[in-house]
Request: fold
Amino acid sequence: MKRIVYIRGKFKGNNKEMNEAYLYAKEMMRKYNLEPQYIGVIGEEWNGKKLLTIKKKEKKLIEDLEKNKKIEDIELQAKEMEGKEILYNKSYFLISQKDGIIAFWTNTNIEKVNFEEILEEMKKYVEPGIEEICDWESGSSPIV
Reply:
């Protein structure tokens, strides 16, 4: 089972807020022992077609946000690994300036994660139109 929290509406701000939301997402995931290893980015000079390691690409992402290059979406992913092999997705965080969506899901440590607190933090970046916390029972990923 996965638990999802999402908010959809109008994104507040621009790249400065995207950067703040990204740093919040990364820190929040770490807080719940869901260390993100990968990012996906859609924007100027980013094609978003493949996941990139945070270690290799975070510096460029931060620089591009600070230089105000167009960044539409950022996603962070935590995966269960065995050596270099990906076993399954543990959690996912999406920040979409373009679509006015911020979403997070996890199938790990659900009982320890404060989804209400995460939703309140999301409201700093998106004027809510729709907001929800729900469980997902299907074997497919709820958001990706």
Q: What stands out?
A: The chain has a mean pLDDT of 89. The chain has one domain: 2-136.
